[in-house]
Amino acid sequence: MGKSFVLDPDERTLHGHFSKDLPPVLTVDPGDSVRARTLDAWWSTGPYHGKNVEDRPRVPEFREGYGHALVGPVEVRGARAGMTLEVDILSVIPATWGTCAQPQSWINELYGIDDPGVIHSWELDPVALTGRNQHGHTVALRPFLGVLGMPPDEPGLHETFPPRWHGGNLDCKEIVAGSTLYLPIPVDGALFSLGDGHAAQGDGEVAGTAIECPMERVDLTFGLRDDWPLTGPVARTPAGWLTIGLGEDLNGAALQAMESMFTLLERLHGVARADALALASVCVDLRVTQNVNGVVGVHALLPPGAIR
């Protein structure tokens, strides 16, 4: 049994960017667990009430120009660049409120929406896993963290918005509790951060936001792999194995997702690349992860038991 640590959102742990120069707030060994709380993406101190999502009250640590409210970084002892970080996601429990808004004007223009002020405030039931907005619509919740990742091996501060090959703003709705996320480690120590709680999101995240919410409890266990080199995010989820591709457009992202899936099929089933392609055409689904963060995400999904 490893040790357990607690990570709360406060002046010591909150940050709105990735940087390999940020000092770790925790150092854990492989096998150790972290129980974290997170703010919503907008650094809010409570439910939204008003007309402009940017006018909400925020924690004192918020600074203009910051991205998502992240907690960390968590250093994993023994992690080296080129190894694989293994993150077991044991629980993801949302708070009792959340917000879905349309803060990006280009999305409104894309769909011909002339009302930039559409905001849905949600009351969340983390036990029944339902959410209800101010218009009386009720949806099922499937909570997950939008941002799980590590900083680039480059100096300076890096935005939290684009997903990267070593994680970040992946916004993949399948990486729920019960999943294991595998990420290639870009920097020694890993320096892992998390945040951007989503109570529910559709594939694509077409309005630019999900039900953005704080997370009351997130339980993670960290491990290291030196026998499985990766070029991008891979996860084993309740929905199946998935590989995430990133690119400037959907075609590029889909190609990357499939390249990673071919490698995964070779590893899981001992098949050659040509056979992996044939099996993927029969058993693997391509889905748009998100299409709103500048860098587009596509995930390839191999359902459980699809190949026996």
Automatic annotation (TrEMBL):
SUPFAM superfamilies reported for this sequence: Acetamidase/Formamidase-like
Annotated protein name in UniProt: Acetamidase
Top-level division of the source organism's lineage: Bacteria
InterPro entries xref list: FmdA_AmdA
UniProt GO MF annotations: hydrolase activity, acting on carbon-nitrogen (but not peptide) bonds, in linear amides
